Amino acid sequence: MDFWYSIGSTYSYLTVMRLPEVERAHNVKFRWRPFDVRHVMVEQNNIPFKGKPVKAAYMWRDIERRAKKYGLSPKVPAPYPLPGLVLANQVAMVGVNEGWVEDYTRATYKRWFEAGEPAGEEPNLSSSLEEIGCDPAKVLAAAQSESIANALSAATEEAMKLGVFGSPTFVVDGEVFWGDDRLEDAVMWAQSIEK
Amino acid sequence: MDFWYSIGSTYSYLTVMRLPEVERAHNVKFRWRPFDVRHVMVEQNNIPFKGKPVKAAYMWRDIERRAKKYGLSPKVPAPYPLPGLVLANQVAMVGVNEGWVEDYTRATYKRWFEAGEPAGEEPNLSSSLEEIGCDPAKVLAAAQSESIANALSAATEEAMKLGVFGSPTFVVDGEVFWGDDRLEDAVMWAQSIEK
């Protein structure tokens, strides 16, 4: 099962924080797949909140209520949108290669949503990387290399081919489940296939 | 608790069909509040599916999967969007006054989603009204009166003042819950207030 997400997506905060518990409870494992949701949304003319203040206000209230249900205490609204979205996810791509993508994503979301520090820029970037035992200078150099930029673009193309149009999205055997509120449906789908 | 909806909304099919069971299971009662969601969306520049084929295809698949979970068998995609959206909801406003809004809404959605007959136009309108024991000619004349047009506009303004921006929406003591997938959250919210 793949967990497609972009650091920069608001609802993905919920999934990033609660996925370990869901994995434990259902004995499943997701592969963390960062991609550039902004590129997909621009491409598909899908603008969820910009210029939509009523819907945006609802989104923050909804996230706040659901976070509480999951035992989380975000400070909402968090800074949004993120100017550093692409860099945040390029760092995540380095983490995919080096095995710390999940830890970094959780650390950076925590700072973004709980301390009000935007992901993808300083001080969030270096603090999050240090917290998980990485060398910020080394990782940030790698994150801005051509090969990582290409890897993020390739992942984004792969996501679009699968029918992913937003974040978070769970893909199970070709079935697409969009939204943190479809996480349990995705898990049930996976378990119904196994039987 | 108010159930704000527009006949013409796709996800509202799920709520319209399963609300009686949710009401029974949780011993709650919703007031059915038709409004003109298209007016709100145009006003707020919120265009969920038009020109977004990937998201629209996902929406139908998602409705199909969730419908199955609720024991429903819609033929998807149903005709969409509905040219007769306003008339469909004007008829519903007559039903609010005369006490058959819920029966009519369910009958017209059933024909729209299960027989492929668009709501808000013939043969769906007259068949649905006849099915619930109404005189189609009489109801359709009333539905197109100035007072009913005004009542639908007033309901739409009231919805917007509450922060409603889409359909279905549940409003419980000022808290707004958007989407069929928030119905249980709305019920839990109402029950937590009672305690």
Describe what you observe in this structure:
Chain A is α+β, with helices and mostly antiparallel strands and 195 residues long. Chain A has one domain: Glutaredoxin, CATH 3.40.30.10. Chain A is built from nine helices and four strands, in the order βαβαααααααββα. Chain A has helices at residues 12-26, 37-43, 53-69, 85-98, 101-114, 124-131, 136-143, 146-162, 183-194; strands at residues 2-5, 31-34, 169-172, 175-178. Chain A has a four-stranded mixed β-sheet with strand order 2-1-3-4, with helices on both faces. In chain A, a hairpin with a 2-residue loop joins strand 3 (169-172) and strand 4. In chain A, helix 4 runs antiparallel to helix 5 (101-114), helix 4 packs across helix 8 and helix 5 (101-114) crosses helix 6. The longest helix of chain A is centred in the N-terminal third of the chain and has 17 residues, at 53-69. The model of chain A has no long low-confidence stretch (mean pLDDT 96). Chain A binds chain B through residues 44-46, 51-52, 54-55, 57-58, 61-62, 65-66, 160, 163, 165-166, 176-178, 181-182, 185, and chain B through 44-46, 51-52, 54-55, 57-58, 61-62, 65-66, 160, 163, 165-166, 176-178, 181-182, 185. Chains A, B: This is 2-hydroxychromene-2-carboxylate isomerase. Chains A, B: Pfam families: DSBA (PF01323). Chains A, B: One of its GO terms (molecular function) is isomerase activity. Chains A, B: Belongs to the GST superfamily. NadH family. Chains A, B: It is an enzyme of class 5 (isomerase).
